[in-house]
Amino acid sequence: MPQKIREIKFKDKDFPAVLREIHNPPVQIFVWSKSSALPSADHFLSIVGTRRCSAYGEEILRKIVAGLSPHGFGTVSGMAIGIDTVAADASLINKIPTIAVLGSGLGRKAFYPKINWRLAEKIVEEGGAVISEYEPDFMATQYSFPQRNRIISGLSPATLVVEAPEKSGALITAKFALEQNRDVLAVPGSAFGANSLGTNRLIKQGAGLVTEADDVLKAYGLAVEPPLGGSTAKLKLDLSPEEKQIFNILTEPMDMDSLIRKSKMPAHTAMGIIGLMEIRGIIKKLGNEYIKQ
């Protein structure tokens, strides 16, 4: 697909108004899209996280994005592998407008990461946009990624951090969000998981705790309809095949090792699913054993 790249300078009327407000705004942005402007949505949510996301991180993010789809949301992410890729893919699946912000130029030779070139094409084909403040032939550097993070946070009223180790670029984006007077939201995780150290610390410091789409809606001041038949009943209707497998195995109190062994899933996959089910209130832990809610 031939690229249609347009330069929008700070003084141009099409320059995003939300980026005019931030400290050190880009002097121009290059936009690869079908139209001459960025996609529109009632609300945008920036999503960031580790490149080495877990099955748990991917699953909960996909459920959050799916839950936001009926409420006029668009997403912003950074096009890196891991959480960024999941955010963009989930947005496309749910027909949500999405914007990817690169730390490289938009040209084919400079584009980074190259593995996501086809994903970028799909974003553009579906009416989204891939943008950068750098010239199309600019090759990414170790400094260009932290710098572009201020644009990711600047495009939305809130930034959601899904998984982040203690030293993570996602935490840089969260810092930019706070400096820009934006909200920071975070998905909690295991106290023992390296990918949760950053997000759990953000929550301790006051970030909004997010385990489902309703938490994002509340952060945006949007009304949330009470679920029919109780929240747990609603969640049980929305179980993935793997979650149903765990749920059906749990006919009696069972420890983590027994659940993993009986599920016959890879240990890291089963642990992620079990952790997500606990957060969603479908199962709970009593001592060392899990039971159905």
From TrEMBL:
<dbReference type="Pfam" id="PF02481">
    <property type="entry name" value="DNA_processg_A"/>
</dbReference>
<feature type="domain" description="Smf/DprA SLOG">
    <location>
        <begin position="8"/>
        <end position="220"/>
    </location>
</feature>
<dbReference type="InterPro" id="IPR036388">
    <property type="entry name" value="WH-like_DNA-bd_sf"/>
</dbReference>
<protein>
    <submittedName>
        <fullName>DNA protecting protein DprA</fullName>
    </submittedName>
</protein>
<comment type="similarity">
    <text>Belongs to the DprA/Smf family.</text>
</comment>
<dbReference type="InterPro" id="IPR003488">
    <property type="entry name" value="DprA"/>
</dbReference>
<dbReference type="GO" id="GO:0009294">
    <property type="term" value="P:DNA-mediated transformation"/>
</dbReference>
<dbReference type="InterPro" id="IPR057666">
    <property type="entry name" value="DrpA_SLOG"/>
</dbReference>
